[in-house]
Amino acid sequence: LLIDWINRTLQEEHIVVKSLEEDLYDGLVLHHLLEKLGSFKLDVDKMALTEKKQRQKLSVIMEAVAKCLQLEQSQLKWSVESILTKDLLSTLHLLVAIAQHFDPSLALPPNVQVETITIEVFLVPVFGPVDDAFDELFSRAPDKLEAVKKVFLQFVNQHVGKLGLSVKDIESQFSDGVILLILIGQLEGYFLNLRNFFLTPASTTEMV
């Protein structure tokens, strides 16, 4: 609903948003949206190509939003950093606040709930070579193993999901090397010639 609302609002500017995370973090769409809805000019360049410029641009935008919505800093459920790092929850909070203020007739669905996952980064003490870090994890913090696997699964699916693939079990789905090859190709940004390996290996030889 929010994507459709943005695209309708900015139709004359020929701006098309497809992803809230990927299309709003640099401030360009937010800039156009605020100027269109608020009928005022923001004292900042339309295009911001570097992270420094994007951060400066978002600072101006966030200040304008807080002023228009008459919100104190403690009331904000978003920040420059959270928008810049493509935090979807923060982006949703920001867009809903803007929509409710400038377009109260927009039929936002009531009682929306968002499930969030907080990932805790922890360090496992390693006594010896760095290569032993996972051995230490298995022996010293086995209770953390499932959390680590969950993070790896999210990481893998974030990349192979672009090709319509889904990994649910690391042990079984990585055992033949196919997902690993495709993942490397996605991370390194090159196309893997599928004729160079067996996409559905039927034997140990084909896996090797």
TrEMBL record:
One of its GO terms (biological process) is substrate adhesion-dependent cell spreading. Keywords: Actin-binding, Cell adhesion, Cytoplasm, Cytoskeleton, Repeat. The keyword Repeat applies. One of its GO terms (cellular component) is focal adhesion. One of its GO terms (molecular function) is actin binding. Pfam families: CH (PF00307). PROSITE patterns: CH. This is PARVG protein. It comes from Tachuris rubrigastra. The lineage of its organism: Eukaryota, Metazoa, Chordata, Craniata, Vertebrata. The gene is Parvg.
